[in-house]
Each structure stands twice: as structure tokens, then as C-alpha cells.
Specification:
By secondary structure, the chain is an alpha/beta fold. The chain has two domains: 3-22 and 38-180, Response regulator (Rossmann fold, 3-Layer(aba) Sandwich), CATH 3.40.50.2300; 186-247, Winged helix-like DNA-binding domain superfamily/Winged helix DNA-binding domain (Arc Repressor Mutant, subunit A, Orthogonal Bundle), CATH 1.10.10. The chain has eleven helices and six strands. Strand 4 (115-120), helix 5 and strand 5 form a beta-alpha-beta unit. The longest helix is centred in the first third of the chain and has 23 residues, at 3-25. It is globular, with a radius of gyration of 20 Å.
Amino acid sequence: MRAGQLSKALSFHVRNRRRRRTTSAGRHHPLGRRRASPLITIVLAEEQQLIRSGVRCLLEAVRDFKVVGETADGLQVVRLVQRLRPRVLVIAVGMPGLNGIEVARQVRQHCPGTAVVMLSMYSREQYVIQALRNGAVGYVLKRARPPQLVRAIRLAVAGHRYLSEPFSERSIGTWLRRAQSGVRDVYDTLTDREREVLQLVAEGHSSSGIAARLGISRRTVEAHRASIMRKMGFGNLVDVILFAINRGILARPLFELPQL
């Protein structure tokens, strides 16, 4: 779904929710006023401002949802979650600086009380599996209907997993068990900082630029780059970029690349 189509769908859904809220507000509950439900606090992370604004509009139209923070920079997400401690993080898979799947892993490690719901344009099972392996409890395609995202958030708060159509809970469970029982992924040997450096290198940043983004010295960046090349067995920058694309760390191009 294109950004303009998504924005129209979200606006239509929000208008309908507001209309239903206005209608129900005039009815008197037979037992008196209902007790207000505790707010579900949400941090929203999405690079594209149009989509982020549309999703925020959708979420804030839900009576017990409250968006307490948002960002377009993947490197800022974990710190934002640590500061705000939301009940749910809604994050796109493709984030600049640090991708959503890696953010999910770090949030699970540092803020286990925050459930992670992924927003994604990717319908390939490998992305869903990586998201679930790294701590996400929900995976919603960007072309899904708005109520699916609302349901994913409610189930995440309740401790349940949600996968939007066309994914099957049974098939994903099978793939997830296979992935967990397989050979250890060499990517798992990288530290948090090395993963950040790997993505920034793949995005085309220089060592000086990476140092400025991460607040470390250029020499430290070079040491991390050397460690990444050694651990991952990369021969050159092309290897890094191909790995990052196939892994979902970078946005996948229109053509298919060979698996590494």
C-alpha cells in the first residue's frame, strides 16, 4: 500500500471510530459510569513522517491508547523506550541507523516490560521469524487493515502473539521452532555496538560519520569495523551491503539478491 493510500485508509478508520465514540457517549450505562480503563502507553517509531502521522492519528483515536513518544531514527528508539517505559513499542522493520528487528532485541534485553509490535512491508516468512526470534510479539503488514494493528497492540499487552494476514500462527510456529533448533547464527556473536556500526557502514556512512552519530572516536569505529569483517567473514564492503539487504537490515531493492 502506498503512503497516500495508507493515509486515506487511516483517516477513514479514525472518522468511523470518532463517530461510534460520539454515539456511545450519549448512552447511560445501567450501573452508572464505567470505570476508565488504564491507558496503554505507546512509543511509535517509523521513518516516513506521513505514515508515522497517520498511525499516530489512528492510535490516538482509540479511547485507552496514548502515544507518549515517537521518532524517525532507529538509534534513538531504545533510549526513548528506556526513558518513557511504554507498555508497547510499535516500530517499522526498516529503520535508519538501527533496524526494527535489532531494536526489538535490545528492548527485550533492557526493557522487558515493553511489548514490541512490528510494522512491516515485508511478507516473507524470514522477516517474521527474525522478528519473533528477537523479541517481537506482533507482526503487522503495512497493507493490513487498521483494526489489525489495534488488535495486535491489545494482544501484546495481554501477553499474546499476533500475526496479521496472510500469516498463519501454526506455520510461523513451525518455522520458528526450526530456526531456534538450527545452527547458531554468526550474526549473534556481534555486540550491540558492532550491530549498530554494521548497519551504518551498510548505509554508506564513513568512519568519521559513524563516530559522530554514535558519540565514539573514529579509531573505535575502525576497531569495530575490523572485528565485524573478521567475525562475519566479509571480504569487502559489497559483502556487508549484500548481507544487510538479505538480512532485512536495509530495505530490500526491487530485484532479488542471492542468499549469502
